[in-house]
Amino acid sequence: MNYIIIVGATQALLALGILLKNKKNNRQHDNILSYLLAAIFLHLAITFILNVFWPNSKIHQQFNTFIALAYPGLLWCYMSYLEHRGKPIDILLAMFPSMCALVGYFWIAAYVINRSGELPPFIKMYNSISGYAYTILYIHYPLKILAGIEKIPTFWKLEKRMIKLAACLFLLIGLAFLFITSWAQLFDISTYFSFIHLWFRVFIYSILVIICISIIYVKVSSFLYVHMYQQEELNEPNSADNLKDSIAIMGDTPTYLSAAENEKNTSVDYAGILENVENLMTQHKVFLDPNLTLESLAARAGVSRHHLSETLNQYKEKSFYQYVNEYRIMEVVSLMDKYRSRGENINILSLAFQAGFHSKSSFNQYFKKVQGCTPSAYLKEKPYYNLLNT
């Protein structure tokens, strides 16, 4: 068991180091993840010290820790901030059960130290209350997370998978607590208590190891995505002379129609197509998908690729790439204004990728084209730039 504990503590410390190394670019959800990792590291480190230096002491074998009560609530806060609806009060509420248990924890610890290892009579009440709290929190929060996880923006694909995995694992812990508590109420399990307690701790520590590894995977993958993948995207040309080549690159090559074909197309409801597409962009924000293509947008709108291309070219005088990226720029500007009004740190590149961009260079080009300034200049001064009409 000590091997699992030290591996988990090491993984938590490594993940925490990755987050802290990039602290200047961290946003609030990264800070919450840091709190969770710090709590896991502290939990496992204390357990390891107790197991090594006081292996035969009964106190840490019959004493529920207070730290783990914060895990599911912090995971919920992390998801809430990814959805841009988290509030500081949520963090306080998530930590509240753990803070209450902390008082009882140190009260019992002080009693044990003063009485030379004697267990206090109220330790059963502490374990009973904290056990019920574990059961409720480890079922309530995971179910709440799994019910709302689809609201996370498409950009946070890896984070979404990590949250889903952690929520399912926490739910298993909650169900295990419920099973053991119910079993203890119905039957006398004192004979099997040591065995159950040992393997339940191994189960929990193993889950914490898995969660720490998944966090490391997500943060390393995000780092590689930001610093390497952005170089693979082609830059969008700015000049009107290169517009034809640009459209061809993006798979939106203009089609020159015959007179018969033009007459046939007069029956096409281009206005209806445009209304449907703009509903997808404004209401469903399909532009957040970094893999959105002309074909996939046409499929969602229920029209042919050709008719969608013609609609954008004739009614908006834009290529598919121009049309989608201007929506993405508006999303970035909206997020910038929101975070600035809250006084939060703003990672421009992270917002660009969140809005669906693949390339830093194309993002910068389109931002200047749409907003009339660079992203940095927009943040330095009160914006007076108007978005282009789409």
UniProtKB/TrEMBL annotation:
It holds the Pfam family HTH_18. PROSITE patterns: HTH_ARAC_FAMILY_2. It comes from the Bacteria. SMART domains: HTH_ARAC. Residues 271-381 form the HTH araC/xylS-type domain. GO terms for molecular function: DNA-binding transcription factor activity; sequence-specific DNA binding. Keywords: DNA-binding, Membrane, Transcription, Transcription regulation, Transmembrane, Transmembrane helix. Coiled coil: none annotated. The chain crosses the membrane at residues 32-53, 59-79, 91-113, 125-143, 163-186, 198-218. The keyword Plastid does not apply. This is HTH araC/xylS-type domain-containing protein. It comes from Sphingobacterium athyrii.
